[in-house]
Queue: 3 jobs
Job 1
Amino acid sequence: MNISKQTIDLGDRIAIAKRIDAYMHDNSDAMIETLACYVNHDTPSRDKTLLDALSRKIEPRFTAAGGRGERIANAQGGDHLLIRFGPESTDTDSKPILIIGHFDTVWPAGTALRRPFRIDRGRGFGPGSYDMKASVVVIEFAVAAIRDLGLDLARRVTLLLGSDEEIGSPESRPHIERLARRSEFALVVEPPTADGSLKTARKGVGRFRIEALGKAAHAGVEPEKGANAIVELAHQIVNIPSFQDLSRGTTLNVGLIEGGSGVNVVAAHASAEIDARVSNAAEAERIERAFASLKALLPGTKVVVSGGFNRPPMERTAAIAELFDRARSIAKSLDLDLTEASTGGGSDANFTAPLIATLDGLGVPGAGAHAEDEHVILEEIPRRAALFALLLLYL
Ligand SMILES: [Zn+2]
């Protein structure tokens, strides 16, 4: 590409960025209204009736913006929404962009009635506002702007809105991975970090359970006939921190224990649950091996270990770094200086990143995910929607 061509392209991009920016500002009241509507409709991850009711409201809004909608039936919970934009695919086409979002929240039915959407000093509060109903609004207005302004997508776009991300995406995961294998790269619309940074690395998340089995006996009459599962479990637990390797970003937390049946009974049963976080696949394998090798230490007891990594780490690969650099240069045409960060929390980006380059944190800045003061910064909604539209056009 010669320099003059590049200059013209950049001039075009800045002119289009201005038109998109103006479109978003003209629509900023409509965006807040849409957000209020979504927030005031509770969508706990296991409530099919509520989830399906909201996805039936969301779907026609995306088809009105030029999408071809399809419901992925889910008997275990809410249906997922799969919506495609751009021309029907042919074998010779370039691969599409994959957008991943979710419309379930961690909040139970009735939360919105108790704490409906409200605005206070430029912030929009309410259950699921930040994680991630504002993100659904961002995607919706980005594709609407592209259509309403008569702009052409550079690539086809596939959007998956899942209904079960907050419980680890058990039913949407195979669809996410199947779509990722056929896509060029993924944009995940989880909220950004507290300072508005995109997320280019996430830790992998593992859950392990250690069950100690002993033999019950009367603690006073014939304690020698028993084998104490609680004492066995205690030996196992004090060993867990030795798996940790802070220099490699590997942490473990024994978060739950239970055991025993009475204070005067030698405990026949005890168990612990452990949360493990790792920054790379090699560490995930090391931790899985460490748990698999646990052996009972006390005579008459057994240990049974279960669990594993349900979200692989999202490692900041060269392809992810390059995708971020391109996004950052596109954001400059909106005078937005994008920054990146890593986080210990998991998302659907953990499923796409081992397969294709992935950017996460493309939602709306705010705070309080999974907390009562959850909110988004309202003036950021049109800004992030404009950014998202430009990414769809130029990435
Ligand atoms: Zn989320």
Job 2
Amino acid sequence: MSISPINFFNLLTNDGIDFFSGVPDSLLKEFCLCLDDNVAPQNHVISANEGNAIALAAGYHLGTGKLPLVYMQNSGLGNAVNPLISLCDPEVYSIPMLVVIGWRGEPGVADEPQHKKQGQIQENLLAALDLPYITFSATENNIESKINKAVTSAMADKRPFVILVKKGTFSKYGTSLSQKETGLIKRENALEIILESLPDNAIIVSTTGKTSREIFEIRAIRNEPHYKDFLTVGSMGHCSSIALGIALSKPDRKVFCIDGDGALIMHMGSLATAGKLQAKNLYHLLINNKVHESVGGQKTAANGINLPALVRSNGYNSVQSCSKKTDLKKKVEQFVLATGPAFLELIVEPGSRNDLGRPTIKPVDNKQEFMKYISGE
Ligand SMILES: Cc1ncc(C[n+]2csc(CCOP(=O)(O)OP(=O)(O)O)c2C)c(N)n1
């Protein structure tokens, strides 16, 4: 039987765990919802990236001596490797924590191309990192003793202990994050307007998750080719750096990065690089819904910060924001004429269609066609 998130949570708290940090994941969505509902905000921190979550948890342990919990999708393990092995490892500071990892791309389970390699190497990777682990699946019946074992082992050996969670492990939590009508434009409609307002020879690099899925569908519905769009299906947080790399190598073409707030915040340091390099042909569009909508709608740090001000202070040449549906087209048209690095934030309503599909073109084919397009062939 699948595990009830609240049962899992109660067992963790009975074992003394009261601090949680991580980046949300679709496989862990129900557990994340349960944390949102049951933990005070200062004890449940959705961090910028998975490495930050490990470091936050390490700090919490240093301050309290208690066992913290970090959660992430296995895509984020790469972000976490450095603090896991150079901070928490028994040969360095020996810091205990539980690390709950959603196992996308598990061998034998159908998944998207960007998850396959990570899923395949998952167990070998944990072995190479010398991280002890147990797995949880939908057919679990020994949850309590397994959690006790994980907690005891992490504390006794003073090291991170991993709980690897297979697809379908958690049952529904009950409530899901409400998608309130805000009167703002929906991301998909904003993307429709953006795509029709960009110049014909625009080069587009879009972010991980539903933004790229929507762009793919809009192109398909309009019978337009997909080769203008590099859909960054994995590698969350890096699409603006990919766009910058292209912009530097193609100074005569306008390169548009279509980013998400969770992704931008995940690797915010790239803003400083973009500001410093002053690529005149770099156009950074942020679709800001203030949540990680693609994996369940959990809040990002965009809720409390002024992203345009931040971007401006990093040296972008032109910075604009737009929250009015009726202004959007005009704002995008002005943005296209600005001198880069240019930034336009579009505040949109969280939410997406339930029947949204996924790209049907393989990433490597997308790359080949895209390279032909940008080389002018
Ligand atoms: C390194 C990494 N961590 C986590 C994920 C899981 N993930 C995929 S999309 C996404 C949310 C992206 O949020 P945002 O950029 O705000 O875009 P939105 O989903 O709101 O459109 C997350 C957390 C991932 N793909 N890679």
Job 3
Amino acid sequence: MKKIIEIEHLTKEYKEKKAIDDLSFNVYEGEILGLLGPNGSGKSTTINCILSLLNFQKGSIQIFGQEMTPSSYEIKKEIGVVFQEVAVFEELTVYENIDYFCGLYIKNKEQRKQLIEDAIQLVGLEQYKKFYPKQLSGGLLRRLNIACGIAHKPKLIFFDEPTVAVDPQSRNNILSGIETLRKNGATIIYTTHYMEEVEIICDRVMILDHGKIIASGTISELKKLTQIEEKVTVEILGLLEKEINKMKELQNVIDVNYQNGLLIITYKKGENNLPKLMEYFKKNKINYQKIYSERPTLNDVFLELTGKELRD
Ligand SMILES: Nc1ncnc2c1ncn2[C@@H]1O[C@H](COP(=O)(O)OP(=O)(O)O)[C@@H](O)[C@H]1O
Ligand SMILES: [Mg+2]
């Protein structure tokens, strides 16, 4: 596999604070690599260092086999960035904004026309070409921000939390747009603190905490890091302490948690956990409303590695 980015021992400190602590990793051609971590874990700082927008104390960064520096203009031409904060011109329309950003890379006007149309189509803004940013909802504005960052068809694209505070429709549109970009040959780095998104689109994930990689691999490799095999959630009222303690003794059970009428039982590998639990409820005359079983999530992995939740 061809390496598109190679990072070795990257360390970035702001005054006393170590924002990135000795990061080393590669990004391979054609993959969507997820950087997953809670707020403040160092995702944006990592991206900004890779892009040479921030200087750093230690480490080396190579992109397309060459050292990346603030004046690496040939490398920068092939890169697209969608920053965490939306940055568009209020006085330009949707079409004019994309034209402006694309024009920074592509001087030929005719060639640009097609690129702008492709970008508008990718993010689904066909109906809004003549709208000004102020007239767009938060989700549509994010989609414009994306179109501006990718219209020049870069080979390498960075997305920094592109779905924060967007409606579900825009979120789906953004995620499927990113998959299309990859299908068309781009290599993508995607940061988020939403583990669900990483599970949907990323081939490989690095989990960051306090500027360090605490785990990395494919989704299934990461899930093997937790001993949890299955999680059963039950809506149940007025469960007594002694009933909870009895459940802790059931076969394959790792842990039992009961809060606000929600019982969560985590199981290690074993068969028929759910039917056996339903049978147990029946035998002990315990009534419940809903019951469902899930596989462990990346949040469970994060919780086991760090002792805290990944969610907001
Ligand atoms: N300009 C700055 N000056 C000082 N500290 C900063 C600055 N930018 C970020 N930090 C700190 O560096 C850490 C990593 O921040 P950041 O990379 O923005 O995290 P993330 O993108 O994962 O939310 C945080 O503790 C943050 O407070
Ligand atoms: Mg950030």
